[in-house]
Amino acid sequence: MDRTATVNNMKAVVSDDCRRWALELAPPALYARSVPRPLASSRSPTPGLFLGLIITLAAVVAYSWYITVQISGLRELQNHLAGRNRKDSLQLLRIQNDLNSLALAMRDMLDNDEPYPLTAWSAQFQRIRADLDNALKLEEQVAVAERTPEQREFLGNAMAQFWDAVDRTFALARDGKESDARAQIRVSLQARQAALSTAVARLLVQNNEGEEQVGLRIGRIYDRVQRQVYIFFAAILSAILLTSLYLIQSNRRLFAQLAALSEQRSELAQKLISTQESTLLHISRELHDEFGQILTAIGSMLSRARNHVPEGSPLRTELREASEIAQSTLDKVRSLSQALHPVMLDEAGLESTIDWYIPVVERQNGIKIFYEKSGTSFPVEGNVGVHIYRILQEALNNLARHSRARQAWVRLRFLVQGLELEIEDHGVGFVQSSARPGIGLVAMRERAELLNGKIEFLKPAEGGTLVRLKVPIDKTEPHVQ
C-alpha cells in the first residue's frame, strides 16, 4: 500500500472515530425516550351512553305500543259502538215516526166525522207496514251488542201481534162490522201501538245512555293518553338530562386528563430539549477545548520534530504528513463542535450566528440561499436564540434532504411585536407518506411552544414549502428568563 493511501485511511479513521464518539455521547432524539405513562383512564362513557339509548328506545317503543292500543280501542268505540249506536237510533226514530203515523191514522179512523169507511185506510197501513218492516230489518243489523235477546225478540213479537190485530180489524170492517172494528181499535190496536212506542222510546233512551257511556269512555281514554304523554315526555326528558349530565361529566374528566397529559408532555419536552442542548453544549466544548488542545499540541510536536530531522530524510516527509492529518482532524473536530453548538451563538448572538450559518449551508449542500433581514435588530436572549437557531437548522436540513430545490429564501424580520423567521423553497414540498409527522417537525413545534410562539408549515403559490416562525417580543428580550 503506497503512502498516499495510508494517509487517506488515517484521515478517514480519525474522522469516523470523532463522529462515532460524538454520536455516542449525543442525547437521543426528542421523544426517543419513554414518555410518561398516561393517567389511569377512567371507565369509558360508551356503556352508559348505550344504556341511556336503550332505555330511551325502549320507552319510545313501549309508549308507541300503548298509544297504538289506545287508538285502536278508541277507533273501535267510535266505529263499532258510537257509530252503530247512532245508526240504530236513526232507525228507532224512523220506527217511532211510523208508529206515530199509525196512531194518527187510528185516531182518524175512530173519528165519525170522516165519510170514508175503515177499509179506506188499508192502503196507508200497508205502506206504513212495509216501511216498518224495512226499518226493523235495518235496526236488527245495526243494533248494539249490549242489547239482550229478550229485548231483540220483544219488539219483533209485539210488532207481529200488532199487525195480526190490524188484519183482524180490517177483516171486521170488510164484513161490515165497523162498530166492532172501531172497538177493536180502541181496545187492542191503540194499546199495542202505545206499548210499541214505549218500547221504542225505551230503546232510544238506552241508546242515549250508551252514547253517554261511550263518550265517557272516550274521555277517559283521552285523559289517560294525555297523562301518559306527560309521563312519557317527563321520562324522555329525564333520560336525556341524565345522559347529557353523564356525557358532560365524562367529557370533563377526559378533558382534564388531556390537559394533564398535555402539561406533562410540555414539561417533558422542555426537559428533553434542555437536556439535549446542555449535552450538545458539553460535547461541543469538550471537542473544542480538550480534543482541540490535544490535536493542536500534537501538531506542534510534529512540527518541532520535523525541524530536527535533516532535509531529504523520509522521516521528515512522514512527519509532515502526520502534521497535516492532525491539522485536518482539528478542523473537522472544530467543525463538528460548531455543528453541535455554535460558540458564536453565546458570544455574538443569534443574528451573527445566522449570518455565519447561511454561507456554511450553501457551501455544504450546494444550495443558493437568498438571505434577507429587515427591521431594527435587537438582542435575543440566549435560550430563545438557541431554539430559533435549532428551528432554522432543522428547516434547512429538511430542505437540503427532501425538497430537491437548488434555491431557498431565508427572511429574518425584527418587528415591533416580536421576531419573525421564514424559510421558503420551491421544491417538491411535504410528502405525506405516513400518518405520523417526522420527529424533526415535532421538535420544531415543541420549540415554538416553549417560546410561546407560533410556527406554520405553508405551501407557497409557486409550490414547495414555507416555514414561518413568530416569536413574541416578551420572549426575545434579554431580561426574560
Q: How would you describe what is shown here?
A:
This protein has a 5-stranded mixed β-sheet with strand order 1-2-3-5-4. By secondary structure, the protein is α+β, with helices and mostly antiparallel strands. The model is unreliable at 21-41 (pLDDT under 50). 73% of the residues lie in helices and 7% in strands. Helix 2 (46-110) runs antiparallel to helix 3, helix 3 packs antiparallel against helix 4 (149-174) and helix 9 (382-403) runs antiparallel to helix 10. It has 11 helices and 5 strands.
Question: Could you give a quick summary of the protein structure above?
Answer:
The protein is of the alpha+beta class and 481 residues long. The protein is built from 11 helices and 5 strands.
Content-based structural category: alpha+beta
Order of helices and strands: HHHHHHHHEHEEHEEH
Write out the strand line-up for the largest beta sheet, numbering strands in chain order: 1-2-3-5-4
The global form is rod-shaped
The largest sheet, given as strand count, sense and whether it forms a barrel, is: 5 strands, mixed
Give the beta-strand count. 5
Integer-rounded radius of gyration: 57 Å
Percent range of helical residues: over 70%
Helical run tally = 11
Instruction: Compute the average pLDDT.
Output: 78
Strand content: 5-15%
- The poorly predicted ranges are 21-41
Kindly, what is the distance between the CA atoms of the first and last residues, rounded to a whole number of angstroms?
A: 59 Å
